Amino acid sequence: MNGKQWQRRQILFLLSGAIGSLALHSCNSSTSSSNGASEPTSTEASLAIVTWIGYTPLYIAQEKGFYKEAGLDLKMQVFGSNVEANAAFRAGRTDAITLVPSETLTLAATDKAFRVVYVVDLSSGGDGILARNKITDIAAFKGQKIAVEQGAVSHFFLLQAMTEAGLTEQDVTLVNLAPDAAASAYQAGQVDIAVSYAPFLFTANSEQKDGRIIYDSSKLKYPTALSDLILFDEAFIEQNPQAIEAFIRGNLKALEFLNSNRAEGLEIAAKQLGLTASELDEQLKSIKLPNLAENVEMLSDPNSDLYLLKPMADLTQFLQSQGKIQQAPDLDRLLEPKFVKAIAS
To answer: Can you give the pTM of this predicted structure?
Structure first.
């Protein structure tokens, strides 16, 4: 691992601590401005996230105060892995979480009650599998060791790719490493195959010359199969519906800001990711940040190829076949489109 990489890793951990320890203001109470007028009441909410370029709008909205303007005091708790974030949400230590569809289904198969209210990004090349040049194709993974975070998004992504090539998990040996560690192990020559996502994926690919990204998320059957969903606890939604709308409005304003003030928006998010603005600009080409109309389509239009329940139905069968879930969750209860539809109307 070279010095630049270690500095980046340190930055990511330090920023995670800084964001995770942000103090919150009082909940559901009016405050007075300097002229004595009452300002709108605000609601507190906590969101579990991991480091990921797709959360660029969230970083911008937090930094620019767009959530607070909409009436939401949002605490973003950054975790080192999806597994850790998932555990915090299940335990009630956060009100919301960002998860991909496969993880959402796994969570839905438990007793945790939640609803999907927003889609923050779609991966279109931002997730990938790194392989040495001697590995000719996915079928050649048979008998190989693969670095991947077991039980998390990268694991499910790998299994989908292997299934297409006629392989099962029993055909390979998995080395359990988080996405950043998996990319570092590949980059250092410790493993021949690794599954990761941006920014770690692209850094390892550029630094390790003997290899390439052999498979990425742009090859997935459904565009929304590997997206990042915003899940809010069901009880929190019922008690604080205004907070959900405020969260969505904050993100939409951040998207507008990124489009109209791209240089500043990139600088804000790049600091959270340990990247330069130009690196982030390049890596954002591997994902799509959906707008309001696309969110309405993904959450509520069964006739659209973007409708989330289409890949979720296939993923449910896949997860059951892999023994990841025992019983199919009630898919009809997962999506809550009323907030995006209300904003769009």
So the answer is: 0.77
Q: Which of 122, 121, 99 is nearest to 50 (CA)?
A: 99
Burial status of residue 175 (CB atoms within 10 A of its CB: 0-12, 13-18, 19 or more) = middle
How far, in Å, CA of 265 to CA of 256, rounded? 10
CA distance 116 to 224: 13
pLDDT band at residue 2 under the 50/70/90 scheme? very low
Question: 25 and 68 in contact (C-beta within 8 Å)?
Answer: no
Q: Which sign, positive or negative, has the C-alpha torsion 146, 147, 148, 149?
A: positive
Instruction: Quickly list H helices, 165-261.
Output: 179-187, 200-207, 234-239, 241-260
Side by side, the strands of the sheet bearing 193-197 are 173-176, 145-148, 193-197, 127-131, 212-216
Burial classification of residue 237, based on how many CB atoms lie within 10 Å of its CB (0-12 exposed, 13-18 middle, 19 or more buried):
buried
DSSP for 28-49, please give it.
S---B-TTSPBPPP-EEEEEEE
What are 185-200's pLDDT values in tens digits? 999 999 999 999 888 9
Q: Which helix (H) or strand (E) holds 173?
A: strand 173-176
> Rounded to an integer, what distance in angstroms lies between the CA atom of residue 288 and that of residue 224?
10
Tell me the domains of the chain and their CATH numbers.
Answer: 3-122+223-344 (3.40.190.10), 127-219 (3.40.190.10)
> Which residue, chain included where needed, has tokens 């550029």?
206
Structure tokens at 77: 């708790």
